[in-house]
UniProtKB/TrEMBL annotation:
<protein>
    <submittedName>
        <fullName>Ala-tRNA(Pro) hydrolase</fullName>
    </submittedName>
</protein>
<dbReference type="InterPro" id="IPR040285">
    <property type="entry name" value="ProX/PRXD1"/>
</dbReference>
<feature type="domain" description="YbaK/aminoacyl-tRNA synthetase-associated">
    <location>
        <begin position="22"/>
        <end position="143"/>
    </location>
</feature>
<dbReference type="Pfam" id="PF04073">
    <property type="entry name" value="tRNA_edit"/>
</dbReference>
<keyword id="KW-0378">Hydrolase</keyword>
<dbReference type="InterPro" id="IPR007214">
    <property type="entry name" value="YbaK/aa-tRNA-synth-assoc-dom"/>
</dbReference>
<comment type="similarity">
    <text>Belongs to the PRORSD1 family.</text>
</comment>
<dbReference type="InterPro" id="IPR036754">
    <property type="entry name" value="YbaK/aa-tRNA-synt-asso_dom_sf"/>
</dbReference>
<dbReference type="GO" id="GO:0002161">
    <property type="term" value="F:aminoacyl-tRNA deacylase activity"/>
</dbReference>
Length: 169
């Protein structure tokens, strides 16, 4: 799916958003370097898989959080969470690295990717999301994200995302 198709579906579903255009942003650090001013909560989007590659997850958290995947795996009773490959990213969400956001769930028609939302941002009113490309950011309200997810068939699970403890060691 292309960004034009996504925006058409968002319109058809009554999902409103604010649109920002910018240079390509592959990482949160690149956005920081440009000092972009955009409304909404900034997100780090991590595409993960279990040890067996049977379950896939899109974890939304804060950009500065260094996620302890070992502890998160234990907490969720999942066999060793790790980063999924670019090949898996293309297979399940059909986007390139740097373009991942919850809007990519539009491409997960079989609902094979589980959406995890960090408790630290669960109460945010607005979220920043790339619309399948990393040269634009859409800001959607929580209400509009709920409408989007209802139309894609995805549900969101809130999780307490543990951070790497730097003092271990």
């Amino acid at each position: 799916m292309h960004v034009e198709q996504l925006t058409s579906l968002l319109k058809a579903w009554g999902v409103d958003y604010k649109r920002y255009q910018h240079p390509p942003l592959d990482t949160c650090d690149e956005a920081d370097a440009l000092q972009l001013q955009r409304s909404g909560t900034r997100l780090k989007n991590l595409f993960l898989k279990d040890n067996y590659g049977r379950r896939h997850f899109l974890l939304l958290t804060t950009p500065e959080k260094r996620v302890d995947l070992k502890l998160l795996s234990k907490q969720m009773s999942i066999a060793r969470l790790g980063f999924a490959s670019e090949r898996r990213l293309l297979k399940y969400l059909k986007v390139k690295p740097g373009c991942v956001s919850l809007l990519a769930l539009i491409n997960d028609e079989q609902q094979q990717v589980e959406l995890l939302l960090d408790n630290d941002i669960v109460d945010s009113e607005y979220f920043q999301c790339h619309p399948l490309i990393n040269t634009e950011t859409y800001v959607l309200s929580h209400h509009n994200i709920d409408k989007f997810l209802a139309n894609t068939g995805h549900t969101v699970k809130s999780v307490l995302v543990p951070e790497i403890n730097e003092s271990k060691g």
